[in-house]
Structures are given as C-alpha cells and as structure tokens.
Write a structure and sequence with these properties.
Number of helices: 25
Radius of gyration: 24 Å
Distance between the termini: 15 Å
Shape: globular
Largest sheet: 7 strands, mixed
Strand content: 5-15%
Number of strands: 14
Helix content: 40-55%
Strand order of the largest sheet: 8-7-6-9-10-11-14
C-alpha cells in the first residue's frame, strides 16, 4: 500500500478503509481481533447484512448466521428507504435512522448521502429537537461520551474509555440552549450525534474520527428533573467557578489525549458561556462555535449571493437584526469583517452600517452601560426605539435578518415597510425550528408582492405568487461546518482564524450559479453538497496554509482533489 493511500485523511492512517483513496483495497475487519461470525454481524462498522459474498461468508464463519439470499447495498438502500417512507411520524423516522446507525454504519451513511434532502430534516433540525426533548424515553444504546460533574478530576480517564484513539473532530454541548428549545440538560446529546453524522455524510470526515460529547452539569428544566425517564444528573445547573473548572479540565484533557490538531466544536451552549468559552480557548486550542461562527459564515455566503440579485457591495447596504444573541452578533461581526477587508475601512466604521434590536428595543449608545459585552460594539447614536417596526421605519434597512428565536415577529407591517422603500428587500428569517421562524416563505413573498429575496433557517416549500414560482433559500449551517471541518482536518490546522470563515463564505457563494439565481435561489441545492464541501474544504485549507496555521506539510498541489480523496465513502468494502 502506498504511503499516500495510508496517510490520506489529514495524515492519519486509514485503518478501517473509510476514505475515497482506499475504496478499492481489501480491508481486514479488525475490532480487537479479526471480527468474524456472530461478532462481525453485531459490529456496525463492518456489518454488511445480506451483502456478504459467498467467499466472505466462508472466510468469516457466517454460514447459517445469515439467510442464503444475497442483497447488494443498493437493494438494501431501496428497501430501507421504502420502509422509512411508511412512517408518518418524523420521530419514528429518526429512531429508525439511529437504529440503522447502530446496526450498519456504512448503510446509514449511504442512505443519508444519497437522500440528503429527504433525510437531513430527520437526522437534524427540525426532528432532532423533538428527539432531544424525548431522548430519555427513546434512549436505547449510549452514543458518544457523557462527562458529568461526578467525573471531576477523572476526565482524562473518561476520554481514554472511548475505543478510538485517532479523533479529529469533537462536538460538545452542555445542553443549556438546544436549538430554540432551551435547557434540555443531558438529553442534548442528540445534537452532537446529529452534527457529527453530518460531518461524515456531508463533509466526509471519517465516522471513527468523530466523537460526540455531552457535559452534564445539571439542568434547570423542572419538567426533566421530575421525569422518571430523565437520563442526566438530577440537580440544578452548576455555574461560576465549579462550571469553569470542569470545562478547563475537559479542554486540557482533550489536548492531552488527542493532541493539538483535534477540532473541538462548541454546540448549543447558552449565550453567556458560548462567547466566554470561544474567547478563552481560541488562542490555545483548535475550537469553533457553530452557533456563532458557522451560522455567520453561511449567512454571509447567502448575503454575498443575494447581492448578485439585488446589486451593490456589502458596504452599500444597511442591515437590521432582530435578535442580538450568539447568532445575531456572530453574523454582524463577520459582515463587518468582510466589509472592512474589501473596503479597507476600519471595522468600527463598518459596524455603523449594522443595527441590532433585542428584547428591549434598538441597541443604542444611551443603553451601552447596561448591555452585555458582546452587544456593546453595536450601540450606535440614535434615539431609543422600542419596536422592530419603529426601527425598520427609522433606519430603512435594505437587509432584515431575524435571529430572535421568536416566531412570527416579522409581521405584515414590518415586511410591507421593507418592501415600500426597497425594490428587492432582503429578508432572512433564520430561527429554528420552523415554528420559531420570524415569518414563513409565503408571508415574505405575499407581503412583498413577490419581490423579497428570502432565506430561512428551516426548510419551506416553494411558493407560487402571481404566476411565478419562488424557491426559498435555506440558510442551513450544514452548508459550511462539514466542509470547514474537513478543511481544518486535511491541512492539520492548529487554530481557527476568522479569515478561514470568510474563505468558507466566499467558497459557498461561488457555488451559486446564474441558473440558481433565475429560480430565486441564493444557496446552491443540497443535492451536490459533497462537491460543495470539498471546495469549501480546499479554500479553508488554502487559507490555513497562507496564514501559517497548517501543520500538514508539504502542501498538496491540488487541494480540491486532495480533499475529495480524503472524504469518507460509505460503499461496502470487500473483506480478505
């Protein structure tokens, strides 16, 4: 085996034959010894069900343990998709997908990759939200690592209990702010599990290199504390020093156990902790917060694409946000950064084009003293205004972005006001799940007489208005974080730099063609997401090399080709 093949995925040996570069090679189905017979059928990584060939059944002692028929992976996929479509309740589909992942890992990913638009809402938002709410009731086998306050002082030992050593991406949550659903404590585990299945399916990061972790510091959710099926610690959330000491021990243990180049993604932490953790660890660890940075990168890509429809540059527009939490301020920051980069204007001047409204009204200079630190840069000189409608009428934004987590806040009056002074108002209603979206696609198109350039966080069906079919864009983080993660892994980056996020946005915006614009799309279709991810990975890796943050040397000549060769492929391998 050539060393090129052996070390494809970010310089880590491909022991299980997971990457595209090793597709044609024979693999030995190792677990702790060579898996055979009954244990092979119970090992999700190597199990192929009825797809084992006659020779494999003989070599691995499977005779009699399987019915005599042989079924190809394609036939298995057809059967499971047929069964999946019989379920009318989304949660039942979710459970069926999780069962498949526990039983036959490659078939699970094959299904997800080949039917991405149909199955993405099942394994991720919106269905994953309901799954987390009911996680205790539907819990079957543990997925990922649970680290709780009980493990203080022993976190390194807990990490060593995980069977895989070559971890490249960790997604960790403390369950305090799951989607728009609030504190779900230990049951937030559904989020890291779902996120990492997308890192693999959409970004091609190997499943064996992914580790979902939930840090359980208790929950303030009374319903869960009184639920007999709750799977976490039954106590109020730890805060302050106790909380930060546990996180400090965790971050140190991660670095000690997995080295400098493991990407740790913070997911669904509450605002106050999310900003602090990112600021604290971004200098010393390879960390990424999808709610702050991933969301921002996708939305910026959507705006860059929308400008091709609306005209002008980023600096020519005025932005108004409803919601000033992680997502809102994260997006605003990245817009200002991109504006500053292209106009060579100081970032503080660029911020003046961006206004934020929170639960108390427009964020203005006179409120500065009482604001949380992450809102302060957005406090500009203006009379205080209480409502979004007043802010829209006074500031006259060209772009309206909702990250409030509150449904139906873009009212008819607000959208009509946007349409009254903009030929093509840009309206992004980004809150998830669908019930929390600031307005529906139909509302946006109807109230703007079909002129809005609209995108949402959750999927909406196309809308016909005045004889024209409008296809709403979905500003889904799944466009960026899988490709971003792959880019970090293949370059061996040791830190995340904001310029890498800008590179990801620009790479995504470049994938939107004139054909897409003709349909009103400002994001490319999800169907070729793996090609999009490879291109994003290449741009992110190129930026890491340019900034001197990449440790995988020498730099491959063709980064797109290299990214594709490192991507996990779910086709069955032939066994010796």
């Amino acid at each position: 085996m050539s060393s090129e093949m052996e070390m494809a995925g970010g310089g880590v040996e491909d022991a299980y034959g997971e990457d595209r570069a090793t597709e044609e090679q024979l693999v030995t189905p190792w677990s702790f010894s060579v898996a055979s017979g009954y244990t092979l059928l119970r090992d999700p990584r190597h199990n192929k069900g009825l797809a084992f060939s006659e020779a494999e059944r003989d070599a691995h002692y499977l005779r009699g343990l399987l019915p005599p028929a042989h079924a190809s992976q394609e036939l298995q996929e057809k059967k499971i998709m047929h069964n999946m479509r019989q379920y009318t309740v989304p949660l039942h589909r979710y459970i069926a997908m999780m069962d498949l992942q526990e039983r036959n890992e490659r078939l699970f990913y094959k299904l997800l990759i080949d039917n991405v638009q149909e199955l993405l809402p099942v394994v991720y938002t919106p269905t994953v939200g309901e799954a987390c709410q009911k996680y205790g009731s539907i819990y079957r086998r543990p997925q990922g690592l649970y680290i709780s306050l009980k493990d203080k002082g022993k976190i390194l030992e807990v990490l060593k209990n995980w069977p895989e050593r070559s971890i490249q991406v960790i997604v960790v949550t403390d369950g305090e702010r799951i989607l728009g659903l609030g504190d779900l404590g230990c049951q937030g585990m559904g989020i890291p599990v779902g996120k990492l299945s997308l890192y693999t399916a959409l970004g091609g990061v190997r499943p064996s290199a992914c580790l979902p972790i939930t840090i359980d510091v208790g929950t303030n959710n009374e319903t869960l504390l009184n639920d007999e099926f709750y799977i976490g610690l039954r106590q109020k959330r730890a805060t302050g020093q106790e909380y930060h000491e546990l996180l400090e021990e965790f971050m140190t243990a991660v670095k000690q156990n997995y080295g400098e180049k493991v990407l740790t993604q913070f997911e669904d932490f509450a605002n106050h902790n999310a900003f602090d953790l990112l600021a604290k660890y971004s200098k010393s660890h390879l960390v990424f917060n999808d709610d702050i940075q991933g969301t921002a990168s996708v939305v910026l890509a959507g705006l860059l694409a929308a400008l091709k429809v609306v005209g002008g540059t980023l600096a020519d527009h005025t932005y108004l946000f409803l919601g000033a939490g992680e997502a809102g301020t994260g997006i605003a920051d990245l817009i200002a950064l991109e504006m500053s980069k292209h106009t060579e204007t100081p970032i503080d001047d660029c911020r003046k084009k961006i206004w934020l409204v929170d639960s108390k009204g427009l964020i203005v200079e006179s409120r500065k003293e009482s604001l949380q630190h992450f809102k302060q840069p957005w406090a500009h000189e203006h009379d205080p205004l209480k409502t979004l409608l007043e802010a829209v009428e006074s500031i006259k934004p060209t772009v309206l972005i909702g990250t409030s987590g509150v449904g139906r806040t873009f009212t008819k009056e607000v959208v009509e006001a946007m349409a009254s002074f903009n030929e093509k108002p840009v309206i992004f209603a980004l809150s998830n799940p669908t019930s929390h979206s600031e307005c529906t696609a139909e509302d946006a198109y109807t109230w703007s007489q079909g002129r809005a350039v609209f995108a949402s966080g959750s999927p909406f069906d196309p809308v016909e208005y005045d004889g024209k079919l409008h296809v709403p864009g979905q500003s889904n983080n799944a466009y960026v974080f899988p490709g971003f993660g792959l880019g970090v892994v293949i370059s061996g980056a040791i830190r995340v730099h904001d310029d890498m996020l800008l590179a990801a946005s620009e790479a995504l915006a470049e994938q939107v063609t004139d054909e897409h614009f003709a349909k009103g799309l400002i994001f490319p279709p999800f169907t070729n997401i793996r090609t999009i991810s490879a291109r994003i990975a290449a741009k992110v890796a190129a930026k890491a090399y340019e900034l001197g943050l990449a440790s995988r040397l020498p730099r491959p000549d063709d980064l797109v080709k290299y990214a594709q060769s490192c991507m996990y492929t779910p086709t069955y391998r032939s066994y010796r």
